[in-house]
């Protein structure tokens, strides 16, 4: 059994971190810190688990594990999506061992207690008559559906979701993710701490060398120290064109420079914006061209990308014709389960309207390049030679912001 970390020990470790530098080694390698992360981050905050379009019909469900808690996300007969603990109320057996499926009822395989799609106890054959059936339904979990993105919170009293909804809904809405269709889901077991995976996503210092396809499509690999007059002129021209297109369609332009806003910081856990692509690119695909039918409210392809992210575990890039969402879940101090989900227009048919070998490579390559980098980082940080290093104020300000958010969250 892993010993719990004392609060005083944790505070000492937090205080030892030098401002503007990476964190001490235990934050990436210590099993006790992993338990702290599960308890104080993943059990207290809103966690992205998937898309509502994964379970469109009553009875469709998928399961997800957050730490030791297995959950079922299921659409009820009233068309509402619920999150329920995947634990039988009889003797605690795991009910569903499937990752996804369709159920008329949720039936425990041990003693066949069964539950309605809304979690109510339906049958407990063999039990005495005096049993209080009303109190023995599956335990519910707090859930929010944000424009087709599903978030759960295991806390008794979750953080207020209203600020996230108010800020993000106007940016997400045109994509219509709730009406979309799942084109592909790919799962990865990444041999790295979840924080390393998140930190990697929050900077493009590494992009020029490691992401050749990404840098052809985007400007955010340029930073304040390397935007020459020629490059800045390209960015300004593309941004101006993007603003005209967005204004024409009624989409707010929320991102006008090459660096992301300093996120997360001061308790903010969500961000969403619309970003221009390089001239000639209308989608984050290998050649920048549209590869699937336009999604949602889009009537033209040249609308840039809609990007959103929520700490601790989700980022999303949505082009005119497809969505790519990435979900992180820690499974150990040096293990992260990553799920990447591609969505397309609900009426699009594979082989006719889109082809996976055109739809997937841009983000599949970018993701897998990152996972390899994260695993090398984990190996190095686990070495006795590791010492925290300084963050670049030009290129790693978002990493520093995340570290500040994280240390503040685990200190509470």
Task: Please give a quick description of this structure.
The chain is 28% helix and 23% strand. With 412 residues, it is α+β, with helices and mostly antiparallel strands.
Taking the sheet with the most strands, its summary is: 7 strands, antiparallel
What is the CA-based Rg, rounded?
Answer: 22 Å
Structural class: alpha+beta
Shape: globular
Query: Number of helical segments?
Result: 11
Approximately what portion of the residues adopt beta-strand conformation? 15-25%
> What is the element string, with H for helices and E for strands?
HHHEEEEEEEEEEHEHHHHEEEEEHHH
Instruction: Give the helix proportion (percent range).
Output: 25-40%
The first-to-last residue Cα distance is: 24 Å
Average pLDDT over all residues: 93
Strand order of the largest sheet: 1-10-9-4-3-2-5
- The overall strand count is 16
Provide the low-confidence segments as ranges.
256-260
Can you offer a commentary on this structure?
There is one protein chain. The protein is 28% helix and 23% strand. It has 412 residues and is an alpha+beta fold. The model is unreliable at 256-260 (pLDDT under 50). The strands form three sheets. A seven-stranded antiparallel β-sheet has the order 1-10-9-4-3-2-5. Strands 11-16-15-14-13-12 form a six-stranded antiparallel β-sheet, sandwiched between helices. The protein has a three-stranded antiparallel β-sheet with strand order 6-7-8, with no helix packed on it.
């Amino acid at each position: 059994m892993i010993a719990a970390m004392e609060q005083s020990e944790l505070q000492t470790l937090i205080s030892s971190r030098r401002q503007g530098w990476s964190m001490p080694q235990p934050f990436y390698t210590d099993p006790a810190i992993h338990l702290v992360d599960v308890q104080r981050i993943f059990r207290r905050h809103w966690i992205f688990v998937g898309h509502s379009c994964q379970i469109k019909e009553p009875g469709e469900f998928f399961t997800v594990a957050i730490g030791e808690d297995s959950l079922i996300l299921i659409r009820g007969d009233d068309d509402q999506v619920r999150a329920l603990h995947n634990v039988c109320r009889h003797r605690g057996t795991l009910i569903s061992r499937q990752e996804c499926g369709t159920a008329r009822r949720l039936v425990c395989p041990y003693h066949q207690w069964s539950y309605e799609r809304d979690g109510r106890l339906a049958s407990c054959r063999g039990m005495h008559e005096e049993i209080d059936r009303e109190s023995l339904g599956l335990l519910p979990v707090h859930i929010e559906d944000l424009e087709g993105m599903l978030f759960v919170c295991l806390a008794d009293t979750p953080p207020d979701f209203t600020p996230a909804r108010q800020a993000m809904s106007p940016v997400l809405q045109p994509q219509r993710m709730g009406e979309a269709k799942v084109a592909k889901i790919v799962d990865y077991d990444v041999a790295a701490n979840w924080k390393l995976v998140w930190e990697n996503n929050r900077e493009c210092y590494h992009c020029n060398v490691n992401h050749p396809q990404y840098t052809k499509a985007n400007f955010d690999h340029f930073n304040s120290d390397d935007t020459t007059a020629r490059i800045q002129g390209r960015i300004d021209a593309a941004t101006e064109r993007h603003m005209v297109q967005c204004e024409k369609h009624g989409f707010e332009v929320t991102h006008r420079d090459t660096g992301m806003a300093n996120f997360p910081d001061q308790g903010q856990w969500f961000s969403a914006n619309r970003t221009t692509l390089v001239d000639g690119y209308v989608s984050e695909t290998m050649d920048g061209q549209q590869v699937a039918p336009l999604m949602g409210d889009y009537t033209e392809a040249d609308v840039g990308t809609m990007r959103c992210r929520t700490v601790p575990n989700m980022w999303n890039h949505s082009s005119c014709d497809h969505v790519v969402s990435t979900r992180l879940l820690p499974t150990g101090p040096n293990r992260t389960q990553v799920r990447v989900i591609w969505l397309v227009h609900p009426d699009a048919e594979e082989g006719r309207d889109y082809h996976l070998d055109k739809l997937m490579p841009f983000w599949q390559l970018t993701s897998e390049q990152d996972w390899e980098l994260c695993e090398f980082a984990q190996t190095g940080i686990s070495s006795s030679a590791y010492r925290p290093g300084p963050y670049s104020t030009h290129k790693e300000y978002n990493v520093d912001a995340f570290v500040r958010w994280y240390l503040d969250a685990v200190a509470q």
